[in-house]
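Q: Fold this one first, please.
A: Sequence and structure below.
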Amino acid sequence: MRRGVLRPGHPHLREKTGVSRPRLQLTKDGRVTRRRFLAALGAAALGSQPPAARAAAAEPDRSVATAFDREMREFMRPRRIPGGALAVVKDRRLVYARGYGWADRDEQIPVQTTSRFRIASLSKPITAVAVLRLAELDKLHLETRVLDLLSLPPVIEPDAKVDPRWAAITVRQLLHHTAGFDTRKTPDPMFRSREIAHIVGVPCPPAPRDIVRYMLGRPLDFDPGTAHAYSNFGYCVLGRVIEAASGTPYETWVREHVLAPMGIRLMQLGASLAERRAPGEVRYYMPQYASPTPFQKHTAASVFGDATRRVPRPYGGFCLESMDAHGGWIASVLDLARFAAALDNPRRCPVLNPGSLRTMYDPPPPPVTRTRLGQLEDAYYAAGWMVRPVAGSRSANYWHTGSLPGTFALLVRRWDGLSWAVLFNQRSTDIQLPDAAIDRALHRAADSVRDWPQTDGFAPP
């Protein structure tokens, strides 16, 4: 999985936009009925520029539908992305949602707003909320040593021993990616299925618990709490922490205690193989927009069964089931929109109290994410979210990305009450056409809307 966050240079805006809310009616192609939105046309500036520059760039009579449809099409067209979906929330109200292109290109099945996609690392905010909910229930504490919760015997290779620094890792450090795992130094174990299965002595692909047992016998890459390094494996461990603290399988506990109170019913952990695709789940594709790509880039050795068999990368080139807590969920944009809306008002959140929400956004303790002068960096990774505080206020922008072969996902919660979720069934491999460009594009769309619809498209859960 690619690094699951946008870097600090990306435009999570500091200026305010307008207000709104529409009741949405969906057509067969997954599009929201336009009649409800065209009553509220607006115009404002484009991009993340200063207000004066943005005013000069303003385009008149830009509706919500026009603004977001244009940016989505201009993003998808040059990349030849088969399908995507978008949902936009304003002040906890669903104001726009639409599917674009094909959920299944061969069968000509269009994407709908209810279509389910792999969300990859957008699974991490969900896991973080689950951990904080368990802390509220006093089933664990963020300063608890992880080894005090896990009862997994390490797999130690000959002439090796358990790194004593494992005993220092806390739940909070796993949430912040400061626990000591760095894929720049040690390859990501979540993509080493055959090697780990062989060493642990289990069939391939190994389960998450087997991967943790393997890593318990490996040295850390740095002292816990001293640095930040984005780690899929750290959130895999958090999945096992949730199971140990709750006495319940990870997926079951999250669905019952996090998603259901938010009105989210159809999210589930996904499956690796095409024949196990969930009802309503899209198909995943490798890009076809560039010059001919070597066969190996579109395919991979299967981690299921015969190791010599090559398969399409999204369908057996990695084990999605092993990625549960850090990258295994499938969801629709409407599911993610509900998730964002549920966290937007601390006094009305159905899962976390205001204190837990503050904890979720707190920066890691020093020296992590501090400058040489000891000041907090402009943006940092908190507990499951990238955070960019807004200068001169108590507000911030929160976001996370998700990326796997065949998948790109983005969830943004902006400080002015706007949120959006966007999902695609293809990931870019062209550095000239980066996936991260959708971030700026959707901020540009949002900034061009002056008056937001006044109805709410969220149906009762």
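Q: Good. Now the second chain.
A: Here it is, same layout.
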Amino acid sequence: MKKITLFAAVVMAAIMTSCNQSAPSASLKSDIDTLSYAIGMSQTQGLKEYLSMRMNVDTTCVDEFLKGFYESVKAGEDKKKAAYYAGIQIGQQVSQGMIKNINQMIFGEDSTQTINEDNVYAGFMAAVAGKETIMSIDSANSYVQTKMEAVRSAAREKNYGDNKKAGEEFMAKVAKKDGIKSLGNGIYYEVLTEGKGEVAADTSRVKVHYEGTLIDGTVFDSNLEGEPTVFGASQVIPGFKAALTTMPVGSKWKVYIPQDQAYGSNDMGNIKPFSALVFTIDLLGIEK
């Protein structure tokens, strides 16, 4: 799982400048004075957008932001105050950023489901404090890596179960069609044009015209009207790869791919989780 950085915003915010109960007044008596003031101003470019978009701060409350900011930068050598303000900053990043991102990653568009925020905070705080924890940090990392996908798949299967069922019914009908051949792993194909050339290996780079559709015929990707695409035979979904490394050059096949040989539980925008896919593949050549 990709690690989520909590501290990027802290670094950015730390280089800004402004006010508090009594805002500092600028005195431009020397080049250094003027340069200092200009640096302060220049570092605010994009800040309001950052606060609003990334930190969920209501920019009509800018006075409160500046108050907190100035108290923080003036904490100086007071380690307790510096730690407290850092905690506020990180807390905002976790609650407004990390939690939302993880929920989106696991539950997708289902806003009714969420991870247990109190448990997230309990685990975070116990680990940072060095207190006795329910599991070791290595065990926690391992559990996240192994369990995250299982929980995500279960959540998506709940939301997209109908899509999965429709795909299974579609593939069952395909298997019974005349002229259909099997590539194994539930993948089927029919030959539109019989090629006589060589067959690509896993390591080959192939030149292809193709079109991908959902089972209802909706086109989600196509280069049939343009130039062919060149890519590695192993740089595509398993079902597409199985066809590329079986069909001779010069062949044109219609390939039917079950969801587990396509994108599985992943949400790919136009391709929803558990979608069976259909590709028309015209293998034009193998790049030497």
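Q: Anything worth noting on the second one?
A: The chain is about 45% helix and 15% strand.
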